[in-house]
Backbone:
């Protein structure tokens, strides 16, 4: 009898458990709805604050660029500006000197936190860099503003570790979407940039809310983004008339161009890290590093005889300037404009000046695309657009976000070419990138060389060790020949 009662109790418990599962599945949408409403309420003040500060930043950047155009002699004060930036970071912003990498580290493993001073410090220092002619961008500043503001709200709301990751990722999306006017690309970028080969889906909806609201806030403040036009691409010749269509002919031409875009992205990333280590190795006194960087930029400006490679590269200083916009027209860029911009920007950033890398990457990609269009007999506007997004994709390892950015900026007509260019550039940039804190979740190809690395930081160290061994070997051969 007792055994029978136990069986009945077990049966009742099992029945109750099954009913509970059925009810949970039936009403699973309620906790989901509660979760989304909660995050929408949390994200609105965060995104509005980020969007407002980004709007102020963009306005200050425009004013600083105008002043530099009006007073060209400001370039000669770039070394002094470098000292000022160095002192600001040594006194106030020491804990935020890692920049975007600090935010990525904090999202991966919440711990030390992001200092509240990061937003005003990076904003002021970026404006100083642009005012005196440093070659830098604005994305890094916007992302750091987003991360810093999100961290402040996270602490005020006493969020747990998981929620802190989500709000920080949303802050990145809000900053990126607001500064470029591409909210969907900002959403995917924030989820894709954390790890190579993997997207963090848990924060996608909060990121989308944040990016849309941040972008709308910038627009509400009356700040407008630069528009780019591909132009007419009709008249593309068939490679084999009657057999290969113009569309497929374009795709065949995109492949070698995309490989070049990936290699350009790799060159940029490697140069930033290599020059930073070189400056630290050669110059023991830290405040002299930005002085040296500023003097090199001044010297390069005299060598090239052009100011086109200073600043953002968006607004023309004079008629005939090589800018991102001019690259969308045939003959709108010089053959080596992309290389000069690479040199200017890597020296500026590796010597301690502040700003982002993305807008210079847009410039490098657009001008390289313009050059390749002449070589490949392809439409200049289209290949400038492909370079614009593909070099960025290779340097940040975010091909999906960059494909979507292409659609948001240039329309969906050439979406398949955007995707081909971004993904090919992503592979050919190798395990390099401008964010050394990116984890390698899935290697780009499965092989011994790539599979041993767990982060871009490890990849950079391995590459530096390889380069040092090669230099030592060549130095040994040179001395042996002299003897």
Residues:
């Amino acid at each position: 009898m007792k055994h029978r009662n136990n069986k009945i109790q077990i049966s009742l418990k099992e029945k109750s458990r099954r009913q509970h599962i059925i009810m949970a599945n039936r009403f699973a949408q309620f906790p989901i709805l509660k979760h989304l409403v909660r995050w929408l309420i949390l994200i609105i003040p965060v995104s509005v604050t980020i969007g407002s500060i980004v709007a102020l930043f963009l306005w200050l950047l425009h004013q600083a660029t105008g002043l530099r155009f009006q007073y060209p002699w400001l370039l000669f004060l770039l070394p002094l500006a470098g000292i000022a930036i160095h002192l600001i970071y040594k006194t106030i912003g020491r804990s935020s000197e890692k920049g975007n990498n600090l935010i990525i580290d904090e999202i991966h493993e919440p711990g030390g936190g992001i200092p509240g001073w990061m937003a005003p410090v990076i904003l002021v220092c970026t404006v100083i860099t642009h005012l005196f002619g440093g070659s830098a961008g604005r994305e890094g500043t916007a992302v750091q503003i987003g991360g810093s503001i999100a961290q402040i709200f996270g602490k005020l709301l006493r969020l747990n570790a998981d929620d802190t990751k989500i709000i920080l990722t949303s802050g990145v999306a809000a900053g990126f979407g607001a500064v470029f006017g591409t909210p969907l690309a900002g959403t995917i970028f924030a989820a894709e940039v954390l790890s190579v080969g993997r997207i963090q889906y848990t924060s996608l909806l909060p990121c989308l809310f944040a990016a849309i609201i941040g972008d709308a806030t910038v627009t509400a403040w009356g700040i407008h983004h630069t528009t780019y036009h591909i132009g007419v691409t009709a008249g593309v010749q068939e490679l084999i008339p009657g057999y290969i269509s113009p569309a497929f002919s374009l795709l065949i031409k995109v492949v070698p161009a995309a490989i070049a875009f990936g290699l350009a992205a790799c060159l940029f990333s490697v140069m930033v890290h290599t020059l930073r280590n070189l400056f630290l190795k050669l110059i023991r006194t830290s405040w002299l590093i930005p002085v040296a960087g500023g003097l090199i930029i001044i010297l390069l400006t005299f060598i090239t005889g052009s100011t086109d490679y200073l600043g953002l590269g968006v607004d023309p200083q004079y008629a005939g300037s090589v800018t991102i916009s001019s690259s969308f027209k045939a003959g709108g860029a010089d053959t080596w404009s992309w290389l000069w911009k690479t040199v200017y920007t890597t020296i500026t950033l590796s010597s301690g000046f502040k700003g982002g890398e993305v807008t210079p990457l847009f410039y490098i990609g657009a001008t390289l695309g313009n050059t390749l269009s002449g070589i490949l007999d392809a439409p200049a506007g289209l290949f400038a657009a492909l370079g614009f997004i593909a070099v960025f994709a290779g340097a940040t390892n975010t091909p999906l976000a960059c494909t979507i950015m292409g659609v948001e900026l240039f329309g969906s007509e050439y979406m398949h070419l955007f995707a081909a260019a971004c993904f090919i550039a992503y592979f050919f940039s190798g395990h390099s990138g401008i964010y050394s804190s990116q984890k390698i979740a899935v290697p780009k190809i499965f092989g011994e060389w790539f599979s041993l690395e767990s982060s871009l930081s490890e990849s950079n160290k391995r590459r530096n060790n390889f380069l040092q061994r090669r230099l030592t070997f060549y130095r040994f051969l040179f001395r042996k020949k002299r003897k």
About this structure: The mean pLDDT is 85. The beta strands are 195-196, 439-440.
